[in-house]
Amino acid sequence: MKLIIVKPELHKFASCAEFAEAFKLGENDLVLTNEYIFNPYFGKLNLPVHTIFQEKYGAGEPTDVMVDAIAADAVKTGCKRIIAIGGGTVIDIAKVLAVSDGGPVDALYDNVANLEKRHELVIVPTTCGTGSEVTNISIINRTRIGTKMGLASEKMFADAAVLVPELLSSLPFGVFATSSIDALVHAVESSLSPKATAYTKLFGYKAIEMIIRSYQKLVKEGREVLGGLMEDFLIASNYAGLAFGTAGCAAVHAMSYPLGGTYHVPHGESNYAMFTGVLKNYMEIKQDGEIAVMNGYLADLLGCGVGEVYDKLEELLNQVLPKKALHEYGVTVQDLDTFTEAVMTTQGRLMGNNFVPLDAERVRKIYGELY
Ligand SMILES: [Fe+2]
Questions:
Q1: Which residues are within 8 A (CB) of 7 and not within 5 positions of it... i.e. 6 or more apart?
Q2: Which positions make up the signal peptide (predicted)?
Q3: Ligand 1: distance of its center to the CA of 284 in Å?
Q4: DSSP-assigned beta bridge partners for residue 162
Q5: Radius of gyration of the chain from Cα atoms?
Q6: How far does residue 317's CA lie from ligand 1's centre (Å)?
């Protein structure tokens, strides 16, 4: 049994200048990032690096079309090392670049068992959610087949993950909200996964505690204190990444992908739309085992009885990001069947990590309840 994967080296620096110096950023490096991150934080350093600004290739989460265009341009630079500085989109694309020869991403999905690492990879997250700097999976919206799908390979791990809290100082509140809720979902789903171990739960439960305590402080004291909490959120997100990197995510993620893919809902927000709905259905099927441990842990943090943890959790989360019903995103009743079909046919990797197995009827029921 795999206890925990401890893959990239972890680093933390107080400033971008310290990071650039320690990693000797230079002409053999391709920095994949966004212009609004690179210019204010790295512009004044005058680094002789190559840059690709992701937003020039399209807005939102990565699509097959966007990744193909970036990979084609990246290969032309001849760079040896990829430095990803950004949120989930930039990081997911950089992992693909690490194994890409410049060809289409569809070919990588078709040949996943034989991917080769072609570039060293350094990942610097600029949001506090994905934990993706320590995992080996990219989620791409495969517009040609109409769903988001994970591409995962041993060869897609970064060589180094670097935390620079300075980079989060100008994070917009909306991005903070969706990304930190994503981290909370990673921690909860991975801790309930049948693949969870004492090691993954050490990181998972600690991440839950850090995120909930920080939300409580934020709600009580106001948004002015957010800057001081950001390092905790960044570390909690990294912990949650270590937890789900081994134990996996599950139905919340699986069921959120059709919503995110079809209606362009940010990843953390589409997860939140499914989060407590999935947990409540787990509880209808099985009330003992890890879910009892989880609910007891949440009850302690939230200061409530175990019977009301999901309502209290939602009450807290709604003050960070208001939860919407699925119809508010434009979802139709017919979509619920299409989404169910997509989950059951394309999300087997995630659905295998559910606390208890969920069949098509149950998935359709959950979508119906959240509609
Ligand atoms: Fe996620």
A1: 134, 136, 157, 158, 245
A2: none
A3: 24
A4: 11
A5: 20
A6: 16
* CATH fold match for the domains 9-168 and 173-370: no
Amino acid at residue number 47: L
Tokens coding 312? 């209290």
Q: How confident is the model at residue 27 (pLDDT cuts 50, 70, 90)?
A: very high
How many other C-beta atoms can be found within 10 angstroms of the C-beta atom of residue 175? Answer: 18
User: What is the 204 CA–ligand 1 centroid distance (Å)?
Assistant: 14
Nearest CA to 338 out of 307, 359, 360 is that of 360
C-alpha angle 356/358/359, rounded to 5°? 145
What amino acid occupies position 286? K
- Whole-number Cα distances in Å, 253 to 199, 226, 280, 282, 365: 22, 26, 15, 15, 16
Calculate how far, in angstroms, residue 239's C-alpha sits from the geometric centre of ligand 1: 13
User: Top-level CATH class of 9-168?
Assistant: alpha beta
Reference 145, options 260, 264, 64; nearest CA is 64
The alpha carbon of 221 and the centre of ligand 1 are apart by a number of angstroms equal to 27
For the packed helices 173-192 and 226-247, what is the interaxial angle rounded to 10 degrees?
Answer: 30
> What's the 15 CA to ligand 1 centre distance in angstroms?
26
Cβ distance 356 to 282 under 8 Å? Answer: yes
pLDDT digits (tens, 9 = 90+) for 180-203: 999 999 999 999 999 999 999 999
Q: Does domain 173-370 have CATH number 1.20.1250.20?
A: no
Residue 23 and residue 26: Cα distance in Å, rounded?
Answer: 9
* Cα–ligand 1 centroid distance for 185 (angstroms): 7
Q: How far is the CA of 179 from the centre of ligand 1 (A)?
A: 8
3-state SS, residue 102 = coil
> What are the backbone dihedrals phi and psi of residue 285, each rounded to the nearest 5 degrees, phi first?
-90, -40
Could you tell me the residue ranges of all domains in the chain? 9-168, 173-370
Q: Give the tens place of pLDDT for each residue, 55-64.
A: 999 998 899 9
| Residue 119 Cα to ligand 1 middle (Å) | 25
